[in-house]
Amino acid sequence: MALIIQTKNGWKRIGNDIFYTLGNVGIGNNAPAVSLEVGDATGEEIIRVSSGVNGNAILSANSFFSTGNPLTQYIVAGGNNWVTGVDNADADKYKISFNMTDLGTNNFLAIDTAGKVGIGTASPNDVLDVVGTIRTSINDTNYARFFQGASNGVISWNLGRLDFRYGTGGQSSQNKMTIKNDGSVGIGTSSPTTKLSVNEKSGMSPIGGFCIRLTNKTGAVTVAGQLVQADTSANDAVKLTDTDEEETFGVFLDSGIASNAEAWVVISGIADVAMQDNTTATRGNWVRSSITEAGYADATNATPPSPAAFSHFNEIGNCIETVTANGIGTHVLARCVLHFN
């Protein structure tokens, strides 16, 4: 069959194909500015691409030159312009940029041919590479979450604490570590009651004391700094030391813990120790259990006793600050380094 070529008013037909040779073509636009410009003043959907049965609907942007970029522009009259496409000049990365035509200018997102995604960078070094600040919002269960796989680690921000969890249950997975917004850290607990808590049984105080949790068997609420010794009526429990006591092993960390409740007891490191009534604590002095008042200490002695003396076993540490007494009926707290003989 012979090839039929027909030409009329700039339109040319070759076989079943038809094209225009004298300028631009406008559909719904009588002043097209580019080769084909489609406009519809009455509707929102202007171009539709539909597939046949079991076929793909493809809208293609092809660059047939080695220096060209296949791209799509998004132009707002009198507003801002965006462009998205493949940047031929940058290893064929797919980019979204804040520009009219240049994919390499004001680039906000880039995907390289290895599948690495960059946000704020056009050269991602990992699966997701973000240059800038990441902000998450709280969802309807009050958690912002980061997951490592479907059944591994979970990091979640839960209205005032950062949880590190592990297991197959997502947010219900077993909590391994928590950091509260006041800086307290819990390992094995989501509610640490001291600066560092391990399972709420051992930990560190804010000033550097090693603590353990024992039951308060004093018969009253705790008083911070009071001296304690083992209680003989219950396991894992403490009572106030007697006067001139040589079996002191710790001091209460907090005041106000009810009798028969667990309380933090500082057993080494640094602690604020309660001194006997109306007694000044002197920096550099050795500290012992009080001879006159049960549960309190005495830091008035400059020279420690001989190891052979019985009073050597009354020693609980060394005073590292001077605190002046406040008068009869008061007990000052003085910072001490604990070591129980």
Top keywords for this entry?
341 residues, mainly beta, 4 domains
Per DSSP, what share of the residues sits in E-state strands of 2 or more residues?
35-45%
Q: What distance lies between the first and last C-alpha atoms, to the nearest angstrom?
A: 114 Å
By DSSP, the count of extended strands is 27
**CATH architecture assignment name of the largest domain:** Beta Barrel
**Separate helix tally:** 0
Number of separate domains: 4
Biggest sheet, in brief?
6 strands, mixed
Helix content: under 10%
Please explain how this structure is put together:
- The protein is mostly beta strands and 341 residues long.
- The chain folds into 4 domains: 5-38, no CATH class; 71-130, no CATH class; 144-185, no CATH class; 202-341, Beta Barrel (Virus Head Decoration Protein, Chain: A).
- Helices cover 0% and strands 38% of the residues.
- The chain has strands spanning 5-8, 11-14, 17-20, 25-27, 36-38, 71-75, 81-87, 93-97, 107-111, 117-119, 128-130, 144-148, 153-157, 161-166, 174-180, 185-187, 196-198, 202-204, 209-216, 227-230, 237-240, 250-252, 262-274, 286-289, 297-301, 315-319, 333-338.
- The strands form 4 sheets. The protein has a 6-stranded mixed β-sheet with strand order 6-7-8-9-10-11, with no helix packed on it. Strands 19-21-20-22-23 form a 5-stranded mixed beta barrel.
- The protein is rod-shaped.
